[in-house]
Each structure stands twice: as C-alpha cells, then as structure tokens.
Design goal:
Blueprint lengths: L2 H13 L2 H8 L3 H15 L4 E4 L2 E4 L1 H28 L5 E6 L1 H13 L7 E6 L2 H9 L5 E4 L8 E9 L1 E4 L10 E3 L8 E3 L5 H13 L7 E2 L3 H9 L4 E4 L8 E6 L6 E8 L6 H18 L4
Parallel strand pairs: 3-4, 3-5, 8-12, 9-10, 9-11
Antiparallel strand pairs: 1-2, 5-13, 6-13, 7-11, 7-12
Family: Belongs to the LysR transcriptional regulatory family.
Protein name: LysR family transcriptional regulator
Keywords: DNA-binding, Transcription, Transcription regulation
Length: 293
C-alpha cells in the first residue's frame, strides 16, 4: 500500500468526488479513478457508494478514513523529523529526570522555552536507571544527581543546597546555617535511601561522627515539608521551600551540603551539538533562577 493512494482516498472523501479531488491533488481524473479502484481491490472492500454524481463513503470507507488520516499525519511527522535529524536538530526532545528535578528544574525551564525549541516530552525515572535510558536511546537528555559514566557526554549544570527546613520561629536553629554535628537526628524528616539527598546526608553525617539511626523516613519531599510545617520535625530535602518554612543550610565541616545535578547525553546522538547547547542553557537557567551553594 502506498501513501500516495491513501492521500488520494482522503482527498476524494474530503471533496466529495473524483473530479474536484483531481484538481486538488493535481492528478487527471481517469488516473485518480484508477488509483481509487486499485486501492479498493487491495483493501478488499468498497470505500465509496457511486451514484447521483457524488461519491459517498461506505461503512468501511468511513471506518478506514480516520486511520488513513492518521497514517498520513505520522508519515509527515516522520519526514519532518528525519529532515531535522539530517540537519542535526531535533523537533522533539525526550527528557528524563527524577520527579523532584522535573518539578523544580525541568518544568520551569520549559516554561521559558523559545518558539524554535523542540517540543519536549518528559518522563520521570529514578537515578539508577536514568543513564541506561540514553544507552537504549529511550531518552535524548537526562538530568541526574549522580555523575554520568565516562562513555556519555555530560555537564554539571547546578549544585543545589540540601536544605534543613524548619517552621519559624525555631529557637533551636536561629541562624541561616547549622553545623551538621549539631543536628538532632530524632527531629530529622528524611527521604528513603534511594534518594540522592539522603545518601549525601548520610555520608556527610558519617564524616562528622553523627549517627542517623533515630531519623524518621518519609515518602516524598512534599510530605517531609508538610510534616515540618505541622511541627513534626525538620525536613532535609533539596527542593524549593513550601508552607512558609525557613531554609537553613547545612555546614558539613568541609562546606555546605549540596546535591549536584548533571545533564547527560550520548556523544553519538545525531543532535549531540544541540543537546550540548541545551545543557548550557540549563546551566545558565539554574544560575539565574535558583539559590545555589
């Protein structure tokens, strides 16, 4: 089956006959009629009722028309995508990142996208699987708190503070910075161990000799902040402040506790140069929009 004959079928349906359709597709009427009959033979069913000088779709024709339109639309999209790839530019950009990064970084970045930017599609994934998506060509660009393996191209786009969020007023923590050794583990609301910020907190606490056995684990950054706002403790998360909480930076003794975010892409991607440019723009965006350590 050729796309050309499907295009003729759609044109005949839209114009109500072979004669007006022939002018629209610039094919002589006899040739267009032959193409239509050939398509009906190939499909094994009549597509139009003939009579009274006008063609009317049969039940089969009415059912197949939207499928034909969809095939033509997809084919046109394929041509456009191929043209873009041949020139080293994407029409659609597939981004993958952890849910918090999508909320705090990717969505605000997309909100300031330019008219000539590729149309983004965004998928949430956990850090251990993000870089595998690039190897499987299931994503074009990933953002991750873990350093990419050396076979990928990457850029460190930001270092976000891991905040201790407290409900004001909090006399036990009066300043904007607190030493990690001074924290009360029983008051800490932390994320599960597969979260990067939890892993970074535990490594910094171990270096400072602080045991985190008494911390309370919660399911998400939003719930951690909600519990902190309710007076249930202090949330240790990297996302933006919610519920009027005050953010306090954590001093590890060797600097402020931060979580890096890397952009990574495959070096053999046909649009690798464009992806590198997107990573550079993400770096500039994060520098201008977010408080960083």
């Amino acid at each position: 089956m050729e796309l050309r004959t499907l295009r003729y079928f759609v044109a005949i349906a839209d114009h109500g006959g072979v004669t007006p359709a022939s002018a629209a597709v610039r094919v002589a009427q006899p040739a267009l009629s032959r193409q239509l009959r050939g398509l009906e033979r190939e499909l094994g069913t009549a597509l139009f009722e003939r009579g009274r000088g006008r063609l009317t779709l049969t039940a089969a024709g009415a059912a197949l028309l939207p499928l034909a339109r969809d095939l033509l639309y997809r084919a046109e999209g394929l041509r456009a995508e191929a043209h873009g790839l041949a020139s080293g530019r994407l029409r659609h950009l597939r981004i993958a990142a952890p849910p918090t990064t999508i909320t705090d970084v990717v969505a605000p970045f997309i909100a300031e996208s330019r008219p000539d930017d590729p149309m983004p599609s965004v998928a949430a994934a956990s850090p251990p699987e993000l870089h595998h998506l690039l190897d499987r060509r299931a994503a074009d660009l990933v953002l991750s708190p873990t350093a990419p393996p050396p076979h990928l191209d990457s850029r460190r786009i930001a270092d976000f503070p891991i905040w201790l969020y407290v409900r004001p007023p909090e006399p036990e923590i009066p300043g904007d910075v607190v030493e990690i050794a001074a924290l009360d583990p029983a008051r800490l609301l932390v994320l599960p161990r597969h979260f990067a910020q939890r892993q970074l907190l535990e490594r910094a606490a171990a270096r400072a000799g602080l045991a985190l056995d008494a911390v309370r684990e919660v399911t998400s950054p939003e719930i951690a902040q909600a519990l902190a706002a309710a007076g249930g403790g202090h949330a240790v998360v990297s996302d933006e402040s919610r519920f009027g909480l005050r953010g306090v930076r954590i001093d590890t003794g060797g600097g402020i506790l931060t979580m890096p975010v890397y952009a990574a892409w495959h070096p053999r991607h046909v649009a690798a140069r464009q992806l590198a440019g997107t990573a550079e723009r993400l770096t500039e965006f994060c520098a201008s929009h977010f408080a960083q350590a």
